[in-house]
Fold this protein.
Amino acid sequence: MIVRIFRGQQPIGQLLLGLAVIFMWALSYLRGTIAGPESSMPLYNLLSSLTGQGLFAYIAGAALTLIQAIQLNVIINRHEVLIHRSHFPGLMFVLATSAVPEMLVLSPAILVNSLLIIVLDKVLRLFKNESPLPLVFDSSLLLALATLLYFPACLYLVWFLAALLVMRPFSWRDWATALMGLLTPLFFHAFYYFMTGSLAGAAAPFREQGAMLSFHPAGLWPQNYPVMAVVMGILLAISTLTLRSRYARNVARVRNFQLVIFIYAIVSLGILIATPAAQHFRYVLACVPLGVILSSYFLEAQKPWKAEILLYLFIAGIAFDFFVAP
């Protein structure tokens, strides 16, 4: 039933998507999920001071999540990354962001996702584009803004440069433009501190957040949610095998797009390993590529009843985390 609805592009799919987001964020608010994390990054501090940590923060978080889900759907369908156009990327994204209750807070990771989804669209548009420089500049500028929101997001520069190599032949102009886009927000960041007479403090947030980066293998998944870890592992394995089995039969454009998504997922998992395990909100960063990868199985499943069972298993795992897990 659910699989059939989201496999198509009927308006009811978007309606159910909106209801799912509202329900999960309302449940998080009523459950009393811990408020959004503190951060020393200047742009996040500015935005969080506007929203606060109360009801408005939950409303803003729910609105951002819904916008991101719809935007992800539009991008994946427009570029035909998967075999069919559907509402599944948005659905899988919403379910993935609900997999751990502590993810449903207005955090720097949610704000970073808004920027990364825009970057993803611009990266996919680079394929055989005769005017790539504006896209490259915008993408690197957005990645710099993401770094000012959450410092570990700077690692997504690795994804962007790798995607640049996948989507286009090497050109020094592309890389020089990427450097200029990256430095622009950082220049204005330093200029603000200079104008306020505290230039020496401009680097302090980067030093503080950078000192927290290390090897945290236990951070790949929170240990107090083992049921969801098993469910997510099964779904991810099946979906990855599904994409791999069809990869060679795709046209070059789609193969490049899917490779960019896989690199996105790998860098996201690397960020999870590099950041403190206590920061549960950071799992949201992996939900964009995982939402796309998980969608592949449900769109290509030859036996809908199996896909339906796995989807209900995923939803049951989320319910277990909210109502049973500590």
Notes: The chain has one domain: 2-323. The two ends are 31 Å apart (CA to CA). The chain has a mean pLDDT of 86. The CA atoms of residues 152 and 300 lie 34 Å apart.
